[in-house]
Amino acid sequence: MSLFKSNTLYPKTMSIPNGFATQIADKPKNKIIFLDVTPPHTPHFISTSSNSIVPIHDNFIAPKINNDIIYENIKPVFTILRMMGVLPLTRTSPGRNQFQIASPSMLYSIICYVSLISYVLYLSLNKVQILRTAEGKFEEAVIEYLFTVYLFPMLVVPIIWYETRKIAGILNGWVDFEVCYKKLSGRILPVKLYRKALAIAVIIPILSTSSVIITHMTMVHFKLMQILPYIFLEILTYILGGYWYLLCEILSVCASILAEDFQQALRHVGPAGKVAEYRALWLRLSKLARDTGIANCYTFTFVNLYLFLIITLSIYGLLSQISEGFGTKDIGLAVTACCSIFLLFFICDEAHYASHNVRTNFQKKLLMVELSWMNTDAQTEVNMFLRATEMNPSQISLGGFFDVNRHLFKSLLATMVTYLVVLLQFQISIPDDNQRQMETDDVTIPVNDTFVAETTKMTTTLATTILTTLAKRKKKQ
After folding, report:
1. Membrane-spanning residues where (predicted)?
2. Distance (Å, whole) CA 20 – CA 395
3. How many CB atoms lie within 10 A of CB 477?
4. Residue 453 located in a structural domain
5. Does 212 fall in a domain?
């Protein structure tokens, strides 16, 4: 057995039997990947030799994204929110979002909100007069108060201001996810949702304006100046639904892309390090799903409760008019109820679909992996990946109050039915005006007959007494 005592690649004191280094037989160890650590950049060495070639900056090793893809895809909806003064987001540079109190966007948002509040207060006197002229029926009073409930979304604007900092953190987290994905796969994240976002930004204002005009023209005949704040708040409510849809759709698309890339990577080679990198990237995506619910916690808690109240009052207004038949004023209630139910279902269904794609689809891919041809380390990494999907929840939860999924929609509908039954029973227990008039007439008619009979009797008696007295006087004379 020949022994080589020297080698330029290894220290001279190390013996290499048969010309093969002992380090080659060692198994490669997996790299430890931390989730919240920015990927290291490629070091740049300064060569002192004049004949050396300076390497070009490798975009594969140290990727740099000038315009973050996620924000560019949903930019139309963000533009609408910023134009309405709802989302005071500041972009210091492409890919960097933050919230600053002392910023022009925040000043613009405050001016818009103060103008809206002042306009509503100016028109509140007319609204009070409308409430005072109600006929007095319980169901009509509820319908009239429904227009006051339409103004509740004004309260959500300061809530969104409070959560803008967390929304900016979500957008920055997506930029980090894009960088890690490009480093792992060598290509830009293929998300193409710009057309959907543009359609939402154009269609929702048109439909919301039409809905408000139909509602107010068929029910109360508001003037044009009284309709304007309701149009603004209706657009705000439904554009928030479009914003929620885009966030959930991005999670679903990225989860599907990551699952396909992971399956393709396992078909060719099965290194343990590759599986570990995909696991780290999936953990980032799962964290983004949880942070999406946390960043919009109070906003969409308020939106869900507001939609629940609107649906309950609108359906009650429709059911209370069944005995009298549907009229033109019921068209607005029907449109409002249908749109609110659709929006509430849309919010719950999209979050349920996104959570399903992030977790369940990955578990299916991992369970379908053939482990027999892999080495021990790769099998261990796949098992650890599967355990990570089980231990890391990917449900979109609004701050831990409740999970946004289809079960939430079912629970809200069940509660809504209970309140509708209570309201309808309360309406039935209160007699209407016709019944009260009939009872009053039944009581007053006997009283009037008795009074007339007694009066006639007294008149007859008095006349008889007078005639008798006159007859006696004539006899005496």
Report:
1. 106-125, 145-162, 197-215, 227-247, 297-319, 331-348
2. 52
3. 4
4. no
5. yes
Q: Copy the structure tokens of residue 210.
A: 């039409």
Number of domains in the chain: 1
Neighbouring residues of 182: CB distance < 8 A, sequence distance ≥ 6: 60, 63, 65, 188, 189
H helical segments located in 97-220: 104-132, 138-149, 156-185, 194-219
Report the predicted TM-score, pTM, of the whole model to 2 decimal places.
0.72
Name the phi and psi angles at 39, rounded to 5: -55, 135
Determine the Cα–Cα distance for residues 423 and 312; give it in Å rounded to an integer.
10
Helix (H) or strand (E) holding 312: helix 297-319
3-state SS class at 202: helix
**Alpha carbon 263 to chain centroid, angstroms:** 32
Q: Are 174 and 271 a contacting pair, CB within 8 Å?
A: no
320 is a domain residue: yes
Residue 124 domain-assigned (yes or no): yes
Q: How far apart are CA 402 and CA 351, in angstroms?
A: 12
**Tokens 């390497």 belong to residue:** 55
SS3 state at 92: strand
Range of the domain at 149: 69-429
pLDDT tens string 199-214:
999 999 999 988 888 8
Cα 134 off chain centre by: 35
- Identify the residue whose tokens are 């509430």: 344
Of the candidates 313, 103, 96, 83, the one whose C-alpha atom is nearest the C-alpha of residue 219 is 313
Instruction: Label the pairing between strands 16-17 and 3-4.
Output: antiparallel
CA 252, 256, 257, 261 torsion: positive or negative?
positive
Question: How confident is the model over 325-373, as pLDDT tens digits?
Answer: 666 667 778 888 888 999 999 999 999 998 888 888 777 777 776 666 6
Taken in order 29, 35, 41, 43, the sign of the CA dihedral is negative
